Amino acid sequence: MLLKLFTADLGKGGFCSQDEETGGFADRPGDMVDPFHTLFGIAGLSLLGEEQIKPVSPVFCMPEDVLQRVNVQPELVS
């Protein structure tokens, strides 16, 4: 239940920083959008299970289908 409440609040906060006219995300509502916050905002929504966004690798911060297509997999270091 706590996780559900946390993720719901996190999702709402991200959408407050979204620019509905040009797209993208900013660090705060009213600020200019930028590629950094847009990339990590979309990746975060994917990791939270947003169904309209492709699954993203938390290791590479890239779409899983792209990593499969170019045959890139994380390596465990021991």
From TrEMBL:
Cofactor(s) the protein requires to work: Zn(2+)
Domain Prenyltransferase alpha-alpha toroid: start-end pairs: 16-62
Domain of life, per lineage: Eukaryota
SUPFAM superfamilies in the cross-refs: Terpenoid cyclases/Protein prenyltransferases
Gene Ontology MF terms: metal ion binding; protein prenyltransferase activity
InterPro entries listed in its UniProt record: PGGT1B-like, Prenyltrans, Terpenoid_cyclase/PrenylTrfase
Keywords: Metal-binding, Prenyltransferase, Repeat, Transferase, Zinc
Entry similarity comment: Belongs to the protein prenyltransferase subunit beta family.
Listed name of the protein: Geranylgeranyl transferase type II subunit beta
Source species of the chain: Rattus norvegicus
Taxonomic classification: Eukaryota, Metazoa, Chordata, Craniata, Vertebrata
